[in-house]
Structures are given as structure tokens and as C-alpha cells.
Amino acid sequence: MPISLNEIIEREVKDTDDTDIDLNTLDNKLNNLPILNSPNLKKGKGKVTFEKFNNIQAVAKFINLKESKIAILSSIKDQAGIYMFFNLTNGNCYVGSSINLARRFRVHMFNVGSVKLPLPLAINKYGLNNFAFLILQYCESKVEICVGLEQHYLDLYKPKYNILKLAGSSQGFKHSPETIAKLKSMHAGKLHPRYNTKVSLDQKILTSMALKKYYLENTHHSKGKKGVLSSQYGIGGTKVTLTSENGEVLTFPSINAARKHFRVRFTTISLNVNQNNPILIKGVKWNGKTE
């Protein structure tokens, strides 16, 4: 009889101790995987993909799986939670959960080049350097909580590399949609995206080091911008560009970001922009437009 998809997944990516590997085996595996050209993140599709990556809310983000291996394993040691693999080339992703994140990461890496499933095939095709690892949320080390949270993020991000869209089914922990709904209700507090997401000082330092290294080697349209001038500030609002009578041009990701920058009322910006009227701020006239 032909083997079923579920049997393939349970056999090859099962989340148990007997599938784990040691660090030497992991190093040998990673050293033999391809390193390919990275996309241009300054324009075109690369820019759009990187903006998508930046907009994902996560406890921590690590770019380049091989270079970040030590930082990743240090951060997730003895931790349970929800994670994501993100392809910086095309924006596709994989979402999973585990009561042992470090073991799960090692198994994912070991499967690259040997398991014919979407995620390991994609990592092998695009290269370790073009994938990022994100910790979406830490949680208690209980399977039912991990599964409920995983379903939340599967519904939210609709990851293309996940074959099974029902959380837990790849681990032999099977839930019906009705059971998943009950889990979400029963563990509402634990399933909140911000539950138990306090970041340690060590984690902040490791994340900062990884991002600084990345930005030294790459660029981004918001590089050097902080606070309200950053594209991450006010995500989800109406983008507005203001041009002063002196020729200064400022672009904000939202009207709220603009009013906070100038320390004026929201309506001072919104009403004048909507009516195409110049805005007088501290004696200077600004013309605005929204996108």
C-alpha cells in the first residue's frame, strides 16, 4: 500500500526526542548546505518582501539560519512556543509549535536536503542565508496550549509551506476544528499574542547584534530613521506625505504618526489633508497628500 501524507509527516518530522540530533551533526549538516545570492531588499519584490517581514510581530527575529544558529539555540533553550521560518526571497513562510523549540529547530535543519516536504525543499533551494527564524510567542510547555496557539497563527498568516492547516496534526496530536475553537476559548489568556512575551536582556542583545550585522551588509528604505519617521511606526494607518513651503518633505506611515511628530491635533492633519488645504504648523505652511 502507498504511504499516506500523514504517515510521511509523522515519520520524518515527528517532534520527539528520538528525532533529535547533536550539535556536531547539526554543524556538519549546515556546512554542507548551499549559500546562494540574496535578493535586493532596496527595490521591487525584495523591498516588498522585507517590509512584510518587518511587519510581523515577534518576540525575536534571526536572519540567516547558519550565521544565527548559536543565537537561536541560546534563545530557545528549554523554551516552548510558536515559531516561523520566513523566506526573505519570496515572503512565503512556515508556522509551527513545540514544547521543545531547540530540538524542533535542530530537526528542521537536519531535514533540509533529505526530506521532500515544502519547508526543507525551500530552504535547500533558496539557501540558509535567505531564511529567517522568528519566535512568534513563548508559552507554557503544554502540548494543548502550543497547539491552540499554533492554530491562531496558522489562521493569521496562512503559511504556504504548511501542508496541514490543522495545528498538531503533524505531531500525532489530532484536533478537530471544533476542539481547536474550544481550546482557544478555554485558554484565552494564554492564547493572547502578547502572553508571556517578556524578553530577557540577553535576548535583546542577541537580537540587536543579529540585526546590526544584517544592516551593515544590507540596506533598507527606513535605515537611519527612528520613532515616528520609521515605516514601522503607525503600521495600518493612512500613509501621508507633507511638503513644507521651504521644500522639506516628510513621509509618515499614518496620520497619527504625523500629528505626534508635530505635536498637533489629529484633525489638524486629517481635515486639511482631506480638503487639500495647506496646514500651518508653528508658522510654516505644509501641503499634504495621502496614499
TrEMBL record:
<dbReference type="InterPro" id="IPR003611">
    <property type="entry name" value="NUMOD3"/>
</dbReference>
<comment type="similarity">
    <text>To endonucleases of group I introns of fungi and phage.</text>
</comment>
<dbReference type="InterPro" id="IPR035901">
    <property type="entry name" value="GIY-YIG_endonuc_sf"/>
</dbReference>
<protein>
    <recommendedName>
        <fullName>GIY-YIG domain-containing protein</fullName>
    </recommendedName>
</protein>
<dbReference type="InterPro" id="IPR006350">
    <property type="entry name" value="Intron_endoG1"/>
</dbReference>
<dbReference type="GO" id="GO:0004519">
    <property type="term" value="F:endonuclease activity"/>
</dbReference>
<feature type="domain" description="GIY-YIG">
    <location>
        <begin position="78"/>
        <end position="163"/>
    </location>
</feature>
<dbReference type="GO" id="GO:0003677">
    <property type="term" value="F:DNA binding"/>
</dbReference>
<dbReference type="Pfam" id="PF07460">
    <property type="entry name" value="NUMOD3"/>
</dbReference>
<dbReference type="Pfam" id="PF01541">
    <property type="entry name" value="GIY-YIG"/>
</dbReference>
<dbReference type="InterPro" id="IPR000305">
    <property type="entry name" value="GIY-YIG_endonuc"/>
</dbReference>
